[in-house]
Amino acid sequence: MTLLLVFAGVLLFAVLVSALANRTVLSTAVVFLVAGFLAGEGAFGWLSIKPDTPIVTTLAELALFAVLFSDGMRVGWSDLRAAWRLPGRALGWGLPLTLGLTALVAHFLLGLGWAESLLIGAVLAPTDPVFAAALVGNERVPARLRQLLNVESGVNDGLALPFVVVFLAVAAGTDDLHLGSLGLELLLGIAIGVVVPWLALRLEQSRFFAASTQYLPLNAVAIGLLVLALGKVTHGNLFLAAFAAGMTVASFGPRQREAFEEFGELVAELFKLAALLVFGALLTPALLGDIGWQGWLFVLFAIIVARPVALWVSFLGARLTAREQLAAMWFGPKGFASVVYGLLVLTSGIAAAFTIFEIVAAAIVLSILLHSSTDVVVARGFDDPAEAPAWHGPLRRLGIGKRHADPEHEGHE
């Protein structure tokens, strides 16, 4: 009950300051993270939450399922085909390059094994637009940049998930037989996520059934709950099932997608904020202090070097302006998916679980603080497109942000 009381109080406070947060560097995500830290054993001790506390695993599972389901619903196949060129570069090149660079430095700087290093890379690979809300929601920011960040962050959670699952299994010492079972679990999850929504939508579109306007938003809820239940019963991967189900509804049920969108975003947001509160409660000064200089150096590399370098390589020849490319390179915040993947690692029981969680936690905290406090500043840089930034000239000589006299290209890529 104490957790519910703290969450309700912080939620009310976040609602009351949400308008201010939209105009300033204040972030509601930071509010929940800090509130969790203060309420946890690292400060006032109101919340006694341990990694093996049942609420941690349950909340992480439900939150990730809800978020992946709503993420998938934002990016149906038609959306991907219509705006794939830039997000395709970020996902096809940027994500694996970010993962690889992060793993490489984790192995040599932190002395972790390759499986653990790749696991850290996969956990920190997803991005979250919530911590760059002022940029994504500013209509003066070029539409293709906002679309890039939205589509990339909506898809990369699901793309990073199989890597997290596989590297976690390898780090746990899983043998070939179990890896085969793991592959079956992943495929079964995808199958459930595609077949169940498709059949449900076909039933509703038949002449025998029809959802009323009042119940239409619950259609996607029912589909999501059925996918969750079947995934539990059959031991299919819940998270791939959630993402596949969201994409299937978005692709074959645009009416259901539209009806569910606002409600679904609110449910996912509640789960996100609750997970951030619990995550913050798990943090203590001792935990952050045990990381050491090598750990903090790795965290800085993961945030300031790995993604910017990977995105710079990915966007070579993409004809983005300097401002657009720098904004995309910088805003790769480690957000909610990384929080939940970190919690999954912590509760996995592998030998390096706590070490990995410490590093991941530090990266997430620093990323949230840096990105959520700079999105307003960077967004305001697009208020006057004619004003050339001071760093534009040197960056052009490096091949970043070359401008092209192609008026049609600006709106379509």
From TrEMBL:
Subcellular location: Cell membrane
Coiled-coil features, chain-numbered ranges: none
Topology class, membrane: Multi-pass membrane protein
GO molecular function: antiporter activity
Keyword Metal-binding: no
Membrane-crossing segments per the record: 29-49, 90-112, 118-137, 158-174, 180-201, 208-230, 236-254, 266-289, 295-318, 339-370
InterPro entries tied to this protein: Cation/H_exchanger_TM, Na+/solute_symporter_sf
Biological-process GO terms, alphabetical: proton transmembrane transport
Presence of the UniProt keyword tRNA-binding in the record: no
GO cellular component: a single term: plasma membrane
Sorted UniProt keywords: Antiport, Cell membrane, Ion transport, Membrane, Transmembrane, Transmembrane helix, Transport
Chief location: membrane
Domain Cation/H+ exchanger transmembrane, chain residue ranges per copy: 12-374
Protein name: Sodium/hydrogen exchanger family protein
Taxonomic classification: Bacteria, Bacillati, Actinomycetota, Actinomycetes, Micromonosporales
